[in-house]
Amino acid sequence: MAKRPTTTSITTGHASITALNANITALKEGFDNTLSRDGSSPNTMSADIDLNGNDITNVNTITNASGVDVVAAAAASATAAAASQAAAATSATAAASSQTAAAASQTAAASSQTAAASSATSAATSLDTFDDRFLGAKSSNPSTDNDGDALATGALYFNTSDNNMRVWNGSAWQAVGPTSAEQTNINTVAGIASNVTTVAGIDSAVTTTAQSVAILNSLNAMFTATENIAVTVASGSLYGGGGTGNIFYLNGIANPAITLVKGFTYTFDVSNSSVSGHPLAFKDSGGNSYTTGVTVNGTAGQAGANVVIAVPTTGTMPAQYYCTSHGNGMGNLIATQTDSIGTVATNITNINTVANNLSTISQKATLDEATALAIALGG
Model-level pTM? Predict the structure, then answer.
């Protein structure tokens, strides 16, 4: 298309010819600026086409200066744009799904964190409970658990002094198994099992011998006014009906009531390792600490340790033995009695006089009763 040419009206005369020529020139310029549909010259454009808002219809191809079909390229671009839009929508959907999944993961992570914290708290509680029940290895009986709290019944610990497990029975520690010394004795007995069987076959003779030995030891104590008593500690019935727990064993007998002779000296050997942490002491009948004539040598449970008591002949007497750490339940009552043999020895002259007089009476059996009585009375 070309710009519409401007023409003028033609009049007569010379001016009309000029106007005609101008009109012809204007038409020529218009045709020169018109696109040729049949391919004749001129067929090129050097300016833009302004369709004034109208459409170009029935176009087969539109080629740019490089020979590229711009209509097809535009269609391809539109298709690609549509595909990109679809892909973008898909990506947006995927992003939304990812966001939802991320939110779910965040919620799950928060739940896991809460569960982990709860598990950590539970584990810490379980560890504390275990730590309150098993106190580990210690050289002596602990008085509290590892947190400094009161001991729980059933608490355990390993005693490194005698290589034995001990359990808290609610009031005292007691050995779970034999001590090292006791295990040695057990092994010794196991090694002489046949001898034990033989001895069992002559039980009455052994019993008689044992009784004789006990009698001889008692007689020896009576005549020397001294006696040694071996002290150990093991589980047994507490004095006073307090259930069971660690108690003193005197010469192998569970916390017996004992009788001490006035004027005698008794040595309680407390060197056995089982006595560690259980100081032996005495009380009078009023429940007061009794220290008259009492000497403590060494530390209970260590070699050479003993407690010596010289029982007085008059005054306040010991009435009970007990553990200063664990109370009266480990011990029992003490009775005292006069030294009968000592009394006899003190009055031996009078006894001899009576014996001599009785001999004289026997020799003078023919005398009347009055004379015999006078002789018997020292006449």
Answer: 0.38
